[in-house]
Design goal:
Elements (H helix, E strand, L loop, with lengths): L2 H4 L14 H12 L21 H19 L3 H39 L3 H49 L2 H6 L2 H43 L1 H48 L1 H6 L3 H54 L4 H14 L1 H27 L21 E11 L2 E11 L4 E6 L5 H8 L7 E6 L2 E2 L5 H7 E4 L10 H6 L7 H10 L3 H5 L18 H15 L3 E5 L7 H14 L4 E5 L3 H4 L4 E6 L2 E6 L1 H6 L3 H12 L2
Parallel strand pairs: 3-8, 3-9, 6-7, 7-8
Antiparallel strand pairs: 1-2, 1-4, 4-5, 9-10
Helix pairs in contact: 3-12, 4-5, 4-7, 4-11, 5-7, 7-8, 7-11, 7-12, 8-10, 8-12, 10-11, 10-12, 16-18
Subcellular location: Cell membrane
Membrane topology: Multi-pass membrane protein
Keywords: ATP-binding, Membrane, Nucleotide-binding, Transmembrane, Transmembrane helix
């Protein structure tokens, strides 16, 4: 099972009394250190869930409503205007049958008995004015609703993007990229569909039914009683639909997310898929996800296949009852023909929005499930938070200290036990050791991608947790084995280390690491678009560009985590020549399996199981009989 599947999901909804045991447990886990296995129940980081209890569903809805409320708060004035417009426009639409009834029962007899056309022209004119006004207000309402929905979506998209950027590395290492993409695409699309059309159906449908019912009762209370009786089976039908649809619609969101996640991860890792001939296994696995999605949607269609006919049956039965009762009353002289026609129209129209409301509930359930997931991501808090009172560090010297540091990714597995280390300013140290010895973990703590579970990491005597993040990022730069290049030109990627850098500065940085020659050979030189993930340059060239990006940033502490692993021998020699020049007067930490890279270090630390087992200059350790001497001898023999 993957790490993502093992990490339990997270919920941060508040419980009774303003606290929540789920939130308290997650907070306690973070306070104890960067342990990723905080036990929670409501599906943020783990596998997509659909088996929520009633209490969990209630908390999810409360959390989603709180998010929606915060999005709508800046739009109060427009929402009030929208409400006034929709009320007036709906009232104008409902007034039509009543005007027709008055025309038949009053204006028409005046024409026939008294040859008085004024009432007839008056009712026709009123009907036209009301119809035009209703159409204009409906158009205005549609525009207002669209602007409000787009404003909410704009705010929500920005929140998701900016918040996920701020979240710590620990979150991104446990929450798959496919799920993040699903939050930003299909989940936001579900909310968009609800806001663009679903809310129109809800607001207009509810108001239309209420106004229609009121008009019918005012026109003929007896017919209103018949309508009231029909509400009983309608209520049971809607309750049945709600009970069954909540589970089914959530299942469609879950299965849809699984399809997207599998597709994204397959396309992202297509090289590994093809290298290990995983196509057939992916076909079967993706086929199962698609089948689950098809089955989930089929159940939804079957639900509507029952709901729609029963709804039509109730509407037709109610219309028949109103007409029969009204017919007997016309014979008895207690009801006018025009009034019966209006009552029949109202009875028929009363059930028209019910089907639209059911469709709204479809969109609402999808959007609600999407909002649950998005609100869960937005309530995630960085495990490496910014300091409350940041300490400025405008001029760092580069001295780094690990004071009684202990670190664990999981509570039951300590990676660095009681670790102490002093790196003087300007010293270059090399970390070597077997895989899993703790080298990269040490580097991540130094770059403050993680905070220690215990103890502190200090830069110039100041705890990294207290330093202003901007100053710390300027002072410490880390280059990893994954040399990520963003879409854009070569120059743009190098200048990422120093926004606003001049072309001369960019060229000097490239020359310093030995990248200038291959850049000049590209089709457009420094203006060549490297394409997504650096598709137009080789892995070694990408690494050289990442070096240039780091060097132009001119940090006081430079961390190279297996950064030369992708370089061939000639490129590595060029980089080493550049390193010897650029690491002068700079604190540097080099993690490398290639011992040729270690030669430029002032000091070598050999790590095993999170502890330093050897510490000395490269020459002194090579001359000894310890672990580094053995590694060096094996490396030398491999070159023969």
């Amino acid at each position: 099972m993957s790490q993502q599947e093992q990490v339990p999901p997270v919920d941060t909804a508040a419980g009774p009394g303003g606290t929540d045991p789920v939130l308290d447990e997650a907070a306690a886990a973070r306070a104890a250190g960067p342990v990723t296995a905080a036990v929670t129940t409501l599906g943020v980081r783990g596998e997509e869930r659909e088996d929520f209890s009633k209490a969990e569903s209630k908390r999810l809805r409360r959390r989603s409503l709180a998010l929606l409320g915060s999005l709508a708060a800046p739009l109060k004035a427009r929402l009030v205007l929208l409400g006034v417009v929709v009320v007036v426009s709906t009232a104008g639409t409902v007034a039509g049958p009543a005007l027709i009834a008055w025309g038949i029962d009053n204006a028409l007899p005046a024409v026939m008995d008294e040859d008085d056309w004024v009432p007839a022209f008056g009712v026709v004119a009123t009907y036209i004015v009301v119809a035009v006004l209703g159409a204009v207000l409906t158009a205005w309402y549609t525009v207002l609703a669209a602007r409000i929905s787009q404003a909410i979506l704009f705010d929500l998209r920005k929140r998701v993007f900016l918040h996920t950027q701020r979240l710590s590395l620990e979150f991104h290492e446990t929450y798959t990229s496919g799920r993040i993409i699903s939050r930003q695409t299909s989940d936001l699309d579900s909310i968009r569909e609800l806001l663009d059309s679903g809310l129109n159906q809800l607001i207009q449908g509810v108001l239309y039914m209420v106004f229609t019912g009121i008009a019918l009762v005012l026109l003929d209370p007896t017919s209103g009683l018949v309508l009231a009786v029909s509400l009983v089976p309608l209520w049971f039908l809607i309750r049945w639909f709600q009970t069954n649809s909540q589970t089914l619609f959530r299942a469609t969101r879950v299965t849809s997310a699984r399809v997207i996640v599998h597709f994204v991860e397959t396309m992202t890792g297509i090289r590994a898929v093809q290298a290990f001939r995983k196509e057939s296994r992916n076909r079967d696995e993706y086929g199962r996800y698609v089948e689950d999605y098809r089955v989930a949607n089929t159940k939804v269609f079957n639900l509507f296949g029952t709901f729609d006919p029963v709804l039509v049956l109730i509407g037709n039965a109610t219309l028949a009852a109103v007409v029969i009762v009204g017919g007997f009353r016309i014979v008895g002289g207690s009801l006018e023909v025009g009034a019966l026609l209006a009552v029949a129209l109202y009875a028929k129209r009363f059930f028209d929005p019910a089907q639209e409301l059911a469709m709204f509930y479809n969109g609402y359930q999808s959007a609600s499930a999407a909002m649950e997931k998005i609100s869960g991501v937005l309530e995630e808090r960085p495990s490496v938070p910014d300091p409350a009172k940041p300490v400025r560090l405008p001029e760092a010297t580069g001295a780094v200290d690990f004071d009684d540091v202990e670190f664990a990714y999981n509570a039951d597995k300590v990676v660095l036990p009681e670790f102490d280390l002093h790196v003087p300013a300007g010293q270059t140290i090399a970390l070597v050791g077997s895989t899993g010895a703790g080298k990269s973990t040490l580097a991540k703590l130094m770059a403050r991608f993680y905070d220690p579970t215990k103890g502190s990491v200090r830069l110039d005597g100041i705890d990294l947790r207290e330093i202003d993040p901007k100053d710390m990022r300027r002072a410490i730069v880390m280059v990893t084995q994954e040399a990520y290049l963003f879409s854009g030109s070569v120059a743009d990627n190098i200048a990422l280390g120093k926004p606003g850098a001049t072309r001369d500065e960019i060229v000097r940085a490239a020359e310093a690491v030995g990248a200038h020659a291959f850049i000049e050979a590209l089709p457009d030189g420094y203006d060549t678009d490297v394409n997504k993930r650096g598709g137009r340059v080789s892995a070694g060239q990408r690494q050289l560009l990442s070096f240039a990006r780091a060097f132009i940033a001119d940090p006081k502490v430079l961390i190279l985590d297996e950064a030369t692993a992708s370089l061939d021998i000639p490129s590595e020699r060029l980089v080493q020549e550049g390193l010897e020049t650029l690491l002068a007067d700079r604190t540097a930490v080099i993690i490398a399996h290639r011992l040729s890279t270690v030669a430029i270090a002032h000091r070598v630390l050999v790590m095993e199981y999170g502890r330093i087992v050897e510490d000395g200059t490269p020459d002194d350790l090579i001359a000894g009989t310890g672990r580094f001497a053995q590694l060096h001898a094996a490396w030398r023999d491999s070159l023969v």
